[in-house]
Specification:
Blueprint (H helix, E strand, L loop, with lengths): L1 H26 L5 H66 L6 H34 L14 H26 L10 H21 L1 H18 L12 H22 L5 H60 L8 H8 L23
Length: 366
Amino acid sequence: MMKTMSLLTEAVEAHRKLQVNIYAGVVDAGTSWTTGLSKFFTSLGDMMRGHIADSMSLLNILNDIYSKHVDYLVTGLSTQLQDCASLAAEVRAIIIKAQSTVISQKETERLYLLHDCFEYLNTTIDNFELVLNTEARKSSHHWHYFSNPLRIDECVIVFHSVHDSLVWQLHWLDSFIFTLGTIMSPVDATIFANMTILRSNMVSLSECLVSFKKELYSFEIELFPTLTSTLKASFSYEPPTSLLLKFSMDGQWLESIASWYIANSVSKLELAEVLQVNGSELLNNADQLYSDIELSLFSKVTNHIDEQEAGMVSFYSDLFQRVTNLQRYMFANDTKLEEFMRSLSIWKMPILNLQKSQVLLLVVAA
């Protein structure tokens, strides 16, 4: 009898503890861990929105400096490159014609115009770095946050290639124009090949010069949607009312049976018969309640966590990549963008205060 009473008491206590845990952890909004998760995601959402705001401030600084000190330089040079490349394509046909017939005055003027275009472009390229550095010194941030397209390897290579080719093409144009109106020798095929390469490099350099502005614009249009679609803090869950009621009634029934047996109101045989009739239903109700919570709550929470994790990984990976791309344009001694990324709280290890009355431990199994 003592063993039976002990088993009954343990069963009642286990059922009571399970009911208390379910109500505290799932049902009661004030203590449920779903509420804790909502607060946790609210905190993460606030953190992300703060980092987005910081990123927008960074973009404002970069845009301001670019528009005041860099835009007119790169736009001017880019426009010259495009104009010269277009004119070079037109003049090629004139050069071919001039080898077999006398060209018109207007065609001759186009040759002189290309020469002037190349000469002016060459001067602009000669002075580009000097003017850029002067603007960097004048900037309110003194060299910091200042984009220099010639910091990009592929850009500086094509920059010097265009400069060298211009010098060579100008020398050849001088000699070609000088012989106009005389019997001309056939133009060597390498002249046309070099001009084709020069035009291609001009187009590449033009695109490279304005690439920083495109990077800023791309960064900005990515941030605005993220600002309105950051982490969703709350998620709804309706506890299974009918199953909870059954589970509660089962607990009361189990306590009553135990009380009757302890008070000798039922015999061991009668207890066994009652448990045989109703015990399986009690276990079944408990299994159904657990299954409902597992499927409708745990699965939902897991999916929610996975969704938020994917969103955070995507945002911070993209942010890191974009800032890294922008850093490539900065002067060698400018680490402001790196400092910006290092200052984000996402990289900082949280400090757990075990002295607090409530400590929420979230263990997410991979």
